[in-house]
Amino acid sequence: MRQTGRDSIAIVPAAPERVRNNDVHYPYRQDSDFHYLTGFGEPEAVAVLVPGRPHGEYVLFVRDRDPERETWDGKRAGPDGATKVFAADDAFPISDIDEILPGLLENQARVYYAMGTHPEFDQRVVGWVNGLRTQARDGRHAPQEMVALDHVLHDMRLYKTRAELVLMRESARIAAGAHVRAMRFAKPGRNEYEVMAELLHEFGRHHCETSYYPIVGGGANGCILHYHENDAPLRDGDLLLIDAGCEVGCYASDITRTFPINGRFTRQQRAVYDVVLEANLAAIAAVKPGAHWNAPHEAAVKVITHGLVRLGLLKGRTAQLQQKLAYRKYYMHRTGHWLGLDVHDVGDYKVGDEWRVLEPGMVLTIEPGIYIAPGLRGVPPRFRGIGIRIEDDVVVTPDGCEVLTSGVPKDPAEIEALMAARR
Ligand code: GLY
Ligand code: MN
Ligand code: MN
Asked: Quick one: which of 109, 286, 332, 348 has the most CB atoms within 10 Å?
């Protein structure tokens, strides 16, 4: 409210429920912006911030209590709970919003609202504003400006508070445990979906959801960046790439590990793995206050280009190859993204034309990889079908960064030791 100012109002709707198929909904996930501001987990709710309003600046519209509906759908906080439990200054039943909201909009200069995020709700906001415009002759003034709330809110979300970091550490710790469990479980003859079930069990027994659909790709499936079939048998001699994370209090973790299904890296696998690991470590070393957003990517790309030349997968001078982006044949994505309430979290990566400078409290992933798809031309057969990514979550600290995901090994000797102890 300090940023939006006194002659403004901000409107933030809860996420709508989504139908999966006839009469069945997807599991409900609150809108990240709404959750960030309210901590209120129910659908059919709207938060309104009205700086300076005498009867309360923070207003929540929520579903009214309804014993019959609650018998079917579960408990509701109601307006009473919205003020008592969720600390709203004032609360109303959502069924009254059409009568009440125009009064809150009246005589405000600006409406802060994230247009386009929830299209059905956009229509209602436009309806309330237009309704006021038609009443101009009665002396009611409609707001003149619509401002993107995203800009204000998403910059706040980029800097994690101490309380948010507690949740993110927990999310990373639980996801790391799930990856360890998968390493202990995997062996030739088991299926990718059985490994996924282990991950989901580990999340579930900590009362966590997945933060995205897990990627469990054996062998060449590890070269498919968004692989989601997860239904192939695991083969002796192949690697297994797992990209999976969970949510704690809606805060995401996002981890990738790649390890040998039989517990021992082959020489070729190990050679490629060592390059990706060196890139991961070099990129993490580049995360510190004052470095720009692209510094970890540049560090990773340098190591990967060098490594690909050493392996004989690229030919030429490293500096020139790097300039020509030759590594993209094997490394076609970027080295990371912001992480928070969304796995690909909000926040600008550039300010104007310049990369953003890293500051304490920002959380990002570091996830270099090398993918040598079986059909790739000009590649020695011994490397074909090797896909490797190593992904960690890091927080920028005053003097560098803290790795949140160190609970699961990435050192090849440590992985082999862990897997040797599984039988
Ligand atoms: N799992 C999504 C990502 O790594 O970006
Ligand atoms: Mn990621
Ligand atoms: Mn990931």
From this structure: 286
